[in-house]
Automatic annotation (TrEMBL):
Residues 99-231 form the SusD-like N-terminal domain. CDD domains: SusD. Residues 318-528 form the RagB/SusD domain. This is Starch-binding associating with outer membrane. It comes from Wenyingzhuangia heitensis. Keywords: Cell outer membrane, Membrane, Signal. It is found in: Cell outer membrane. Belongs to the SusD family. Its main location: membrane. Residues 1-22 form the signal peptide.
Length: 529
């Protein structure tokens, strides 16, 4: 299916006050800037659409959903940093204090830029004299994107010990910089996120009601799915939220948009083509980073073999662990689609190849994001011509229907109920036998193998399950080959990342970037110093 994405409307003020100002780029400095004032802009339907389009600009930022937040996910046991990089290493080893200066340093402030843009839309579009249908959609987009940005910044940096992250809405967006306090608990953030998403769900159309020109805008199912996930994260503090997970997962299923797994009873083909641009807009993809040959998520190239076997500038980060590889059951078609191991067949720029790597530090590579590199004429057609911005036409998933099913299964099991039905839909698509009376360990396994290498966030799963400390106390193994240029070379399983000290008394959240602490005056998360 042809890839489409929303083009960002650019106006003279750089979408008015949509950028945060000051030399420190302080997220609490909310003064409008630019040559065009709010009074001269918010007039027409075209203005409202441009305002909405500006909400998505940072979705394409390399340090948001290209690398950015993925550096935190890379801390998990599923992968290692595939190249020697000092800053990447200290993140994975939990040795940062917020002053690392790159990689994760801008995730926080960029989330607040999205929040500011959303607040501007909510402030101005509500009173515009435009079509009610368009007004509702644009307001729904703003509520969704505000909630989505808060979802990421809240669970990454907030908990019930340090507090949540500052809540900035239309009501207080013009308060003095430095006046924003952290709420007592991240639960306050979760409550706000859910209220925003409920409003968004009421205002937004179903995806099936959009024309192709609007593919990539949030829709009702995306809002409902993130209500379910926010409740799942909230449930670590309040078990009553599991019932809400089930409720909203079912609302996604029954929304009328035809949500379903990509499943034609051909497991190997289904799962391979699921992770490709062929299914960008199909029933399983609920929310993604809309991508193309000129912009989008760079994760596809970040995971590619370093220097791409001499044909493309792959970056070689985030390489799978042997533990993840061994987690797959016999007969699970997801294994070959997810991971390349020495000797595995694949196509690359028109050439039939067998996997080997002289660069991978673990002896593996993620294969999920490789489909668009298959054809001889891929560059400029399905792959970016610029290897320094290695996007493809595959929309990197942030929320799939498979995760909605697994969230429901987890919530049911955690509530002492039977989660077999949603769990087994996912297993059946993978060509596996059904589970009977599935346990929480079955759920943890299924979530790990189904969502491996995705923004579903294995690291935070381990944190919220209380498994991170024990998991990270074990070293990570890879495969060291005698001849890394030979696909048939014998290997030895060796430690490729040593055991790490994870102190669950404070490491369940990450340190807030120092520049944010310095400019906003909010307190740093405890013990990150």
């Amino acid at each position: 299916m042809k890839n489409k994405y929303i083009k960002i409307g650019v106006v003279a003020l750089g979408l008015m006050s949509f950028g945060l100002t000051s030399c420190s780029d302080d997220f609490t400095n909310l003064a409008p800037i630019g040559a065009v004032s709010n009074e001269s802009f918010w007039k027409t339907e075209a203005d409202a659409i441009k305002g909405a389009n500006g909400l998505y600009e940072l979705m394409h930022d390399q340090e948001m959903f290209g690398r950015g937040f993925f550096w935190y996910i890379n801390a998990s046991d599923d992968m290692i940093t595939g190249r020697t990089k000092a800053t990447a290493d200290v993140i994975k080893n939990f040795n940062i204090n917020g002053s690392e200066g790159s990689y994760t340093s801008t995730c926080y402030e960029k989330c607040y830029k999205i929040i500011r843009r959303a607040n501007d839309v909510l402030l101005n579009v509500s009173d515009m004299e435009i079509s009610e249908t368009l007004k509702n959609r644009v307001l729904g987009e703003a509520y969704f994107m505000r909630a989505f940005a808060y979802f990421w910044v809240a669970h990454t940096y907030g908990d019930d010990t340090n507090g949540g992250v500052p809540i900035v809405t239309v009501d207080n967006m013009f308060d003095a910089g430095g006046s924003y306090a952290r709420p007592a608990s991240v639960e306050e953030n979760y409550a706000m996120i859910i209220e925003d998403l409920k409003t968004a769900a009421d205002l937004l159309p179903l995806f099936t009601e959009y024309g192709a020109e609007d593919f990539g805008r949030p829709h009702k199912d995306a809002a409902l799915a993130y209500i379910a996930k926010t409740n799942l994260y909230w449930a670590q503090y309040d078990a009553s939220k599991y019932a809400e997970v089930v409720k909203y997962a079912d609302l996604v299923t029954n929304s009328g948009s035809g949500r379903a797994l990509v499943d034609t009873d051909n497991p190997a083909t289904d799962y391979r083509e699921l992770h490709s641009h062929l299914n960008n807009w199909e029933s399983e993809y609920i929310w993604s980073v809309n991508s193309g040959v000129d912009r989008g998520s760079i994760l596809t190239g970040v995971m590619l073999e370093n220097k791409g076997w001499g044909k493309f500038n792959g970056w070689g980060y985030y390489t799978p662990s042997e533990g993840l590889y061994n987690e797959f059951e016999a007969g699970d078609v997801r294994k070959a689609v997810t991971i390349l191991s020495f000797g595995d067949d694949f196509r690359y720029f028109g050439e039939a190849k067998r996997y080997q790597s002289e660069n991978s530090l673990s002896g593996f590579q993620f294969n999920k994001y490789m489909y668009e590199f298959r054809e001889a004429d891929a560059i400029g057609k399905t792959v970016n011509t610029n290897g320094d911005n290695p996007t493809t036409v595959y929309n990197v998933p942030l929320m799939r229907y498979a995760e909605v099913l697994l969230m429901k299964a987890e919530a049911l099991i955690a509530d002492g109920k039977n989660g077999d039905a949603p769990l087994n839909l996912v297993r059946q698509r993978a060509g596996l036998a059904a589970k009977t009376n599935a346990t929480i360990d079955d759920l943890k396994h299924e979530r790990r193998v189904e969502l491996a290498g995705e923004f579903a966030n294995r690291h935070f799963d381990l944190v919220r399950w209380g498994d991170a400390q024990a998991t990270y106390a074990q070293p990570i193994y890879g495969r060291i080959y005698d001849d890394r240029s030979n696909p048939d070379s014998p290997y030895t399983s060796k430690i490729v990342w040593p055991a790490r000290t994870f102190d669950a008394s404070y490491m369940n959240v990450w340190p807030i970037p120092t520049k944010v602490i310095n400019s906003s005056g909010i307190p740093q998360n405890k013990n990150w110093n």
